[in-house]
TrEMBL record:
Residues 139-206 form the Ribosome maturation factor RimP C-terminal domain. The lineage of its organism: Bacteria, Bacillati, Bacillota, Bacilli, Lactobacillales. CDD domains: YlxS_C (cd01734). It is found in: Cytoplasm. Keywords: Cytoplasm, Ribosome biogenesis. Required for maturation of 30S ribosomal subunits. Residues 63-135 form the Ribosome maturation factor RimP N-terminal domain. The gene is rimP. One of its GO terms (biological process) is ribosomal small subunit assembly. This is Ribosome maturation factor RimP. Gene3D superfamilies: Ribosome maturation factor RimP, C-terminal domain, RimP-like superfamily, N-terminal.
Length: 207
């Protein structure tokens, strides 16, 4: 009798354990939580990334035509800094921009942002017109071509010679291929990098 009761109890405990595991699995699936690269993310995070990319493109469409020579639109970023949403528009000119330039550009850019309909910004934001500084990004082929002879930093989607980051002098940019000279410990080396492997490129400060 005791043995039968013990077996029934063990079966019941096993059923409860299975139900608990199934319940946990259902909760996790309902939340669509996925672990990628050691971080937990959800579809909402990817939706936010897409929304930010859309806002940046909409801003670029209206801002680029009103920024005239000698000024150049370098980059646009939109994101949270602290508790505030910041729309940063990076502008440059050959001799560098001044505080007066940023004030004048703000008066030009601010009204055109109000013409974007429907309003893509989900909340109040601060507009920042600023210089890209010494480490300006090289986001187009034209920007890379203009950096020939300069010291640059390049990140890759795929490793070349077991490296995914190169920093050195850009010797040439021809037929969609960068040729860079860099230091490998105490030796100078050159590397050819197909443009389609470049994930990120910017000017760099040689130390």
């Amino acid at each position: 009798m005791k043995q039968n009761f013990k077996k029934k109890l063990e079966v019941r405990l096993f059923e409860c354990l299975c139900f608990t595991l199934l319940l946990k699995s259902a909760i996790l699936n309902n939340k669509n939580i996925r672990k990628r690269g050691g971080e937990i993310s959800s579809p909402l995070a990817y939706e936010e990334v897409d929304a930010i990319a859309t806002i940046v493109e909409l801003v670029r469409e209206v801002v680029e035509p009103v920024i005239e020579a000698p000024f150049e639109l370098v980059d646009i970023e939109y994101g949270k800094i602290g508790s505030d949403m910041i729309l940063s528009i990076f502008v440059d000119k050959p001799e560098g921009i001044t505080l007066n330039d940023t004030a004048d550009l703000t008066e030009i850019i601010s009204p055109v942002l109000d013409t974007i309909k429907p309003d893509p910004f989900p909340e109040q934001y601060f507009l920042e017109i600023t210089s890209p500084g010494l480490e300006r990004p090289l986001k187009t082929k034209e920007a890379v071509a203009g950096a020939v002879g300069k010291y640059i930093h390049v990140g890759l989607y795929q490793a070349i010679d077991k490296q995914k980051v190169f920093e050195g002098t850009l010797l040439s940019f021809e037929e969609d291929e960068l040729t860079m000279e860099y230091m490998d410990k105490t030796r100078k080396k050159t590397v050819q990098i197909p443009y389609n492997l470049v994930s990120k490129a910017r000017l760099a400060v040689k130390l």
